[in-house]
Amino acid sequence: MNRAGAIRTAGAIILTANLLLAVAKGAVWFQTGSLAVGSEAINSLSDAIYSVVVLAGLYLTTQPPDFEHPHGHERIEPFVSLFVALGVFSAGGVVLWRAGTSILSGDITTTTSVLAVVVLAGTGVVKYGLYRYCLRVGDAVNSPAVVAAGLDNRNDILTAAAALVGVLGARFGFPVLDPLAAGVVSFGILYTGWEIVRDNVDYLVGRAPPEDLRATIVQRALSHPDVEGVHDVVAHYVGPEIDVSMHIEVEGDRTLIEAHDIETDLMNTIRDIPNVDDVFIHIDPKELGEWKADAEADRLAETSVGDEEGQPDGSS
Q1: Parallel, antiparallel, or unpaired: how do β-strands 241-250 and 229-238 relate?
Q2: What is the gyration radius of the CA atoms in the chain, in angstroms?
């Protein structure tokens, strides 16, 4: 899967879907005057507006490396994700505020229109499709921004469900279900915002990748027949990608060409691990006395390895 093409396509699909949903909900809102549907129309319009910014950010992240950005522009992605989180927090806060004020004031406007039920149910179906699509693409091409957009679409499923509860509650004589459901959903929305912030702050502050991946790095280094040991192994996020540095221990009678070949083989082997970008290897000959014990490297060498996906703990 071409990463740049997949990310740009995802951004365009999200924008188009939000625009179409905003139009559909706006038409039903105009016809019925439903507060629940009106809130959903505003929500979709807001989604469409921020989708433009997300699409622009995704376009920037897929630009090739240049003189000023020799490692590419992928590090912009966590900032795009945090922008999505800001929108999620805003939506959660607005939903909670409206639910609270509606309950306290008793001013609850609903509709029993079948058309409102259809558009809200349809919204849930569309948003679920977008949610699954974004997670699949985001995981496949390691795009935290697309994953964040997927989580935001999951929120929209919840808000549509809350609005649907309100409409159905009105049909059965319980209009207060509208703000009550919305209030419950708002906490789910706010938690999603926290999920997005948590995972993307890990990318920005250079957190170490999961233990499985660090163990894979150490074990691949030690699998080379000429490597006697490793120490000072450091792996950390630089944006959504991972940089690795390590010292490897070899016998000192190797020629310069042999040492170069060992280093090159290891760099290529470790770069084959998903999401690993740059690998820096320092060779320590035995005779210089630079071999040393490294309890963490020894522990990782014995760690059972599962998958090798370089996602921070807690990623979806």
Answers
A1: antiparallel
A2: 25
